TrEMBL record:
Transmembrane segments: 79-103, 172-205
Classification via PANTHER family: FLAGELLAR BIOSYNTHETIC PROTEIN FLHB (PTHR30531:SF12)
Keyword annotations from UniProtKB, A to Z: Cell projection, Cilium, Flagellum, Membrane, Transmembrane, Transmembrane helix
Species assigned in the record: Actinoplanes cyaneus
One Gene Ontology cellular component annotation held by this UniProt entry: plasma membrane
Protein name per UniProt: Flagellar biosynthesis protein FlhB
Superkingdom: Bacteria
GO biological process: protein secretion
Gene3D superfamilies: secretion proteins EscU
InterPro entries reported for this sequence: T3SS_substrate_exporter, T3SS_substrate_exporter_C
Pfam families per the UniProt record, alphabetical: Bac_export_2 (PF01312)
Region annotated Disordered, chain positions: 1-20
Length: 360
């Protein structure tokens, strides 16, 4: 069996994303959410307490004048007030979760995960997760979490316990402030430590996923064939396209006004239609293709003019179907004028030497 030594291709990575096989850890979003909550929680509690005080002040009036409509209105006000107070915290936590997921490989609904697969019920695969390297990492991570969070809790309580022991004469509001600050400090310290651990977990999970997605050399070759096409088939398609192009050229040779030849190695067929602009190349070729152009010109009584330099220049500097470049206008115009003079005398067919050949 071939070893998977090759990095995954873009096509393989795309397929893995569609199947939900992405290296990510949920801890990253959870710990960032906790950190955001520790910042917004005091404001949320303050807003909630303020609204609760306003409601409490209205309760005696409802008790003295019991009215179902007033009671319902007070109940609605309480619900809307609680929702308004909690909304910033809720939306922030949602945004943090989405951002954390996006930063770990994008947000995509892996619909293929909803399709039942019986291989997921394989007990041997589950056993491998329990006793394999994945289980060892999860155990290490859990122990490390316990140690770190225990250390954070110890450092926080070490500072707050003496304050609470000496707080017998403090008012209840001051005591609550001390406890609140300590709890928030504990949450923030735990969140920072958790983010660091989640970052390490993300690197491990990403590395493990990349290793799982590795491919054998044969798989890479096969995927390249599927993506780019079989080289043999592509060569056959190119050959057919070239053959079709040659056939189109040959069909246009009888419509040419002149064929400029080398005289034996190169042939370029030109057609001049004044209403369409400059003369155009309708066919060109070297070797056997040039011989075929000359043969068709002979059969269809298309004049052939021997001009070595012009034939070579037109063959290398022009494309079939395009107008000749401006630098050839003068030379080609002299050739066409020569051909017109031959037609006027009734002796245009056949091979002729140019009276004014282009300099070699």
């Amino acid at each position: 069996m071939s070893e998977k030594t090759e990095q995954p291709t873009q096509q393989r990575l795309k397929k893995a994303k569609q199947e939900g096989q992405i290296g990510r850890t949920p801890d990253l979003g959870a710990w960032f959410g906790m950190l955001a909550a520790s910042v917004l929680l005091p404001r949320t509690l303050k807003q909630a307490m303020k609204h609760a005080e306003e409601l409490i002040d209205k309760i005696p009036d409802v008790i003295q004048n019991p009215d179902p409509s007033k009671t319902l209105a007070l109940f609605k006000e309480g619900l809307f007030g609680a929702a308004w107070a909690v909304a910033p915290l809720a939306f922030t936590l949602m945004a943090v979760g989405i951002a954390a997921a996006g930063a770990q490989g994008g947000i995509r609904v892996a619909t293929k995960l909803f399709v039942p697969k019986f291989n997921r019920l394989n007990p041997f695969a589950g056993l491998k997760k329990i006793v394999g390297p994945h289980a060892l990492w999860e155990l290490t991570k859990s122990l490390f979490k316990t140690v770190v969070l225990g250390a954070v809790l110890y450092m926080t309580l070490k500072d707050i316990v003496p304050q609470l022991m000496a707080a017998g004469r403090l008012p209840i509001t001051a005591l609550l402030a001390i406890v609140t600050d300590a709890v928030l400090a504990l949450i923030r310290a735990a969140a920072v430590a958790g983010i660091a651990m989640a970052g390490a977990d993300y690197m491990v999970v990403r590395r493990r996923t990349q290793k799982q997605l590795r491919m054998t050399k044969e798989e890479v070759k096969q995927e390249n064939k599927n993506t780019e096409g079989d080289p043999l088939i592509k060569a056959q398609i190119r050959a057919r396209q070239m053959a079709m192009a040659r056939n189109r050229q040959m069909a246009d040779v009888p419509t040419a006004d002149v064929v400029v030849v080398n005289p034996t190695h190169v042939a370029v067929a030109l057609r001049y239609e004044p209403e369409k602009g400059a003369p155009r190349v309708v066919a060109k070729g070297k070797g056997p293709l040039a011989a075929k152009i000359r043969e068709l010109a002979t059969d269809n009584r298309v004049p052939m003019v021997q001009d070595v330099a012009l034939a070579r220049a037109l063959n290398s500097g022009c494309e079939v179907g395009q107008e000749i470049p401006a630098e050839f206008f003068g030379t080609v115009a002299r050739v066409l004028a020569f051909v017109m003079s031959l037609k006027a005398r009734g002796s245009a067919a056949g091979l002729h030497r140019s009276p004014n050949p282009a300099p070699v």
